[in-house]
Amino acid sequence: MIRVATVIRLLAICMALLLAMPAAASTSDDALRDVAAWFAVDDKALDHWLPSAPGAADDRRILLQRKSAADGPLQRVMVIYPRKSTAYDVAMSTMLHDFAARQLNLEILAVNFARDPQRGASLIAEARREGYALVYAMGSETAEWLYQDHRDIDIPVVTVCAKDPVQLGQMPDYDRGSGNSFAFTSLNVLLDVQIGYLRELKPQLKNVAILVDEKNTSAVTTQARPIAEALQRQGIQALKVAVTNPAQAKEQLATLVPAAVDEMRRSDPALEQSVFWVTGSTSVFSEIATINAQSGKVPVLAVVPEVVQAGTDSAVLSIGVSFESNAQLAALYGVDILTGKSRPASMKVGVVSPPDIAINFLRAREIGLKIPFSFFEAATFVFDADGRPARIRGQTVSRQPGG
Predict the structure, then answer these.
(1) Are residues 176 and 199 in the same domain?
(2) Which residues on neighbouring strands pair with residue 208, listed in sequence order?
(3) For helices 191-201 and 225-233, what crossing angle results, to 10°?
(4) Is residue 1 part of a domain?
(5) How sure is the predictor about 19, in pLDDT bands with cuts at 50, 70 and 90?
(6) Distance separating alpha carbons of residues 143 and 161, to the nearest angstrom
(7) Is 335 helix (H, G, I), strand (E, B) or coil?
(8) b/e map of 96-124 (b: 16 or more CB within 10 Å)?
(9) Do residue 183 and residue 330 come from a single domain?
(10) Residue 47 to residue 50: CA distance in whole angstroms
(11) Residue 18 belongs to some domain of the structure
(12) Is 273 in a helix, a strand, or coil?
């Protein structure tokens, strides 16, 4: 017969376990809430990682530890953010998925240096002092700061969600490594590839209006200026449509886009050989509804595949590199470094090839644009004539009859 004391002891243990479970969840929720101003990941990423606030209260750092055990010695990774961006949310979620699938024994610290070089320097000192195995530079701003101020860092650095390092002068070309601790990846598609696709879409192309935030230095330097110069060399008019105040992008685009359409009509009265080209300027592509409303029948193309989405608030076509694809490549670079397979000094610039093509056939139908079949065959993301997902990440989306 079970003694009363034994039963009481078992009940106490069960009660303690029950109380501990919501406490852990609450701690994770609190940690995510504290950093919500700059950090977010999707719920599926959190299936494998337990977030917590490391050490003293600090709303600019969050620790992510594996929920399940992994082989090998623990390796610590620091991911340095400059600010909040939905692009960074996608990139971080993607890397967490990738690292979880590879069973690496990692502990990941995400930190926001808030574009403060002094704070950034203290984070680099911490990474050195605490023996971090790898640093990720999240975004072009972080990559530029790290490369300019800490090029002599002795910890491997991989860039993620950052624009082309060759166009930015951080690398001489695409054919060799950096010769130092940096391994670069690129959000950009090579120029000749982009223009090749444009020529296939519009063989008699006359006008390309390039939409950019002029305060976004990396977008101007790596996306707007290079393609404008390349188009002009081929006799195609490149119109600069530049937002001067990101906070007023909606209002400015409502005026700038119709003005660009009027300019296009001078050489292309029917607007059949003209396109808008939206760069990776967040303040610009976030206003895709405004751009569409003012562009009439002129196709709106984007270098960011995520701007092609369900419904009508979407670019009609994108030829670019998705944040997810770039992050997958950056994760692979990190894995190769952590496992000793590669050294950053010898790693060539990571370029996604072929590019991610995204198509919205609802928008194509609305403006009367014919999409080459080869684009459809190669597309990673497709939205059908009703604007519904038909292919996502290369996989056909199944739909119930009548759904």
Answers:
(1) no
(2) 238, 275
(3) 60
(4) no
(5) very low
(6) 9
(7) helix
(8) bbbbbeeebebbbbbbbbeeeeeebeebb
(9) yes
(10) 8
(11) no
(12) coil
Cβ(53)–Cβ(34) below 8 Å = yes
Pair 244, 380 in one domain: yes
What is the distance in angstroms between the CA of the first residue and the CA of the last residue of the chain?
A: 60
Share of the chain above pLDDT 90, in %: 87
Residues 264 and 383 reside in one and the same domain: yes
Closest CA to 75 of 53, 57, 99, 94: 99
Token duo for residue 132:
């971090």
Do 221 and 363 belong together in one domain?
Answer: yes
CATH number of the structural domain spanning residue 80: 3.40.50.2300
One-character DSSP codes across 60-125: TEEEEEESS--EEEEEEEEEEE-S--HHHHHHHHHHHHHHHHTTEEEEEEEEE-TT-HHHHHHHHH
pLDDT of 23 > 60? The answer is no
| Residue 44 vs residues 40, 90, 305, 379: alpha-carbon distances, Å | 12, 12, 21, 25
Whether residues 274 and 129 share a domain: the answer is no
> Could you report the per-residue pLDDT of 316-368, keeping only the tens digit for each?
999 999 999 999 999 999 999 999 999 999 999 999 999 999 999 999 999 99
Do residues 75 and 125 share a domain? yes
Residue 4 placed within a domain: no
Could you give the CA distance from residue 280 to residue 272 in angstroms, rounded to a whole number? 25
On whether residue 273 sits in a domain, the answer given is yes
pTM: 0.87
Please give the mean pLDDT across all residues of the chain: 93
pLDDT for residue 26: 53
Residue 314 structural domain: 191-319+355-396
Integer-rounded Cα radius of gyration of the chain = 24
**The residue type at 74:** L
